[in-house]
Write a structure and sequence with these properties.
Elements: H1 12-31, E1 33-39, E2 44-47, H2 49-55, H3 65-69, H4 74-90, E3 94-100, E4 108-118, E5 124-132, H5 134-153, H6 159-172, E6 178-184, E7 190-196, H7 198-204, E8 210-211, H8 217-224, E9 228-230, E10 247-253, E11 257-263, H9 271-299
Antiparallel strand pairs: 1-2, 1-5, 3-4, 4-5, 6-7, 6-11, 7-8, 9-10, 10-11
Helix pairs in contact: 5-6, 5-9, 6-9
């Protein structure tokens, strides 16, 4: 590394700026934080490469703040634009979490921070950071799943009620909107579809029952007790039609059934999605086992 002082006439300022840009780029990559800057007087917004990457924006694009906000869900777009306009009017900062929509049906969570500053000539500038906090939210969701679903399952008395609660939690807490819950019949030969979310039915049609011994992801998951993650259903070797769903995950509900979820894009799920869905499966299995014990004890 050359630590020699610059020679006479060497552009010290440009070297400094280059080094700062390198350090800034390294900082953003290490922390996963993107940076943005808004010139209020000229109504122009600058986004760092990391900020664009977080939002899935082409590096060559220069979107306005409103353009970027349009990528959020409706509620998120409204909230962040209102806070942005307040920041412009009142020179106040804000921090807000929004959901980012993409090609698939699962959402990512973004945290936006904003600060305001006036220059020597009283020109107002807004600046801040953007960060993908999806994994943070997912960890919070897992805790919420355990607490909320456990409480709801305490009062149920049928397997069908358990299936309804699992599907609702998968959809509304974990964001797995295309969810199906199948429970094995009394002869342990067929995985019967007990509940499928409205979104799942719209995108994939009526969900079939599966024989326990057939070679489908759900049947294998039930037999082995091991979850399966299918990044691309084009590679799923069975004859079943899944409509618009391109990828899926499957987790066991103990020895009682299988919970599955799909998405309309390839490679939509990761291991953390399987882990979170697996928590639901475990809770459901424990509850169905408890219901069986209660019924058997009453029959004695």
């Amino acid at each position: 590394m050359n630590n020699a002082p610059p020679r006479d006439g060497e552009p010290v300022q440009s070297l400094s700026e280059t080094r700062c840009e390198e350090l800034l780029s390294s900082f953003q990559q290490l922390t996963g934080v993107g940076i943005w800057f808004h010139d209020v007087a000229n109504d122009r917004t600058w986004w760092s490469q990391q900020a664009k990457e977080i939002h899935g924006i082409d590096p060559t694009e220069t979107p306005s703040f409103a353009d970027l906000a349009a990528r959020y869900t409706d509620d998120g777009e409204t909230a962040v634009l209102e806070q942005f306009l307040d920041a412009v009017d009142r020179s106040e900062g804000f921090t807000t979490d929004v959901s980012l929509t993409g090609a698939g049906t699962t959402e990512r969570a973004i945290r936006i921070r904003c600060e305001s500053r006036r220059s020597a000539d009283d020109t107002l500038f807004l600046y801040g950071t953007v960060r993908d906090i999806t994994e943070v939210k997912r960890r919070e969701q897992r805790i919420q799943v355990l607490r909320q679903t456990s409480q709801e399952l305490r009062s149920v008395s049928s397997r069908e009620d358990v299936a309804e609660i699992l599907a609702d939690a998968a959809k509304n807490i974990l964001g797995l909107v295309n969810t199906t819950v199948r429970l094995v019949d009394s002869n342990e030969q067929v995985l019967q579809t007990v509940v499928a979310t409205e979104e799942c039915l719209e995108r994939a049609g009526d969900r079939p029952d599966y024989y326990v011994d057939e070679e489908t992801p759900a049947a294998r998951t039930f037999r082995t007790g091991e979850p399966e993650l299918h990044a691309d259903h084009e590679m799923t070797e069975d004859d079943h039609h899944r409509g618009d769903l391109q990828s899926g995950l499957y987790v066991p509900i103990g020895k009682h059934g299988v919970l599955s979820a799909g998405d309309v894009v390839v490679d939509a799920f990761a291991d953390h999605d399987v882990e979170a869905a697996g928590l639901l499966g475990q809770l459901g299995a424990e509850t169905i086992t408890r219901i069986g014990w209660v019924k058997r004890s009453r029959a004695i």
